[in-house]
Amino acid sequence: MVSWLKERVKYEEITTRNDILDDMFGNLLSFLRSTELIQTCDNNSLRVCFIAYIHKYYYRNDSLKVNYDENYEWIDQLYSQELSEIFAGFLETDDYYLTEIFKYRTFDKLLDFISQHFIYDNQGEAEDLAENNFYQTIDERYI
């Protein structure tokens, strides 16, 4: 993977795949910091995981069983639009530089990566949902 990262981008003298992935990671992290998500590891570890994840599941297209847990569902529900736009930007950059990083071209794996390294604290939403369900189940005959 190290040689793959150090490989220079076509038609560029000094730009490498690592540089491109660093920019992508910076854009993603910038967005994630603006959300209510809680990061579960430090930035350096997250960057290493991001690059390894992209290499394994997007470049090599190894199979991945996406973990559709509650955290994944909350993140998908709340940030799907923004994350799909960020991923579209990744694909545009990949196409522009001809880096062929993203052989698998849907953002579900990116969403899975985020749900593994960020947590959405949905306590407030769960309480609101429970309260709404309580009022919906009151039988009007007894009022």
Sum this structure up briefly:
The chain has 143 residues and is an all-alpha fold.
Topology:
Blueprint (H helix, E strand, L loop, with lengths): L1 H5 L10 H17 L4 E2 L3 H17 L10 H28 L10 H10 E2 L3 H14 L7
Antiparallel strand pairs: 1-2
Number of strands: 2
User: Helix and strand string, N-terminal first?
Assistant: HHEHHHEH
The total tally of domains equals: 1
Helix content: 55-70%
Ends distance: 68 Å
How would you sum up the global shape? Answer: globular
**Residue-averaged pLDDT:** 86
Strand order of the largest sheet: 1-2
Largest sheet: 2 strands, antiparallel
- Total of helices: 6
Strand content: under 5%
Gyration radius (Cα, Å) is 19 Å
Helix/strand-derived category reads: mainly alpha
- Which segments are poorly predicted (pLDDT under 50) over 5 or more consecutive residues? none
What are the main properties of this structure?
single chain; mainly alpha; 143 residues; 2 strands; two-stranded antiparallel sheet; globular
Describe this protein's structure.
The protein has 143 residues and is mostly helical. The protein has one domain. The chain contains six helices and two strands, in the order ααβαααβα. The chain has a two-stranded antiparallel sheet.
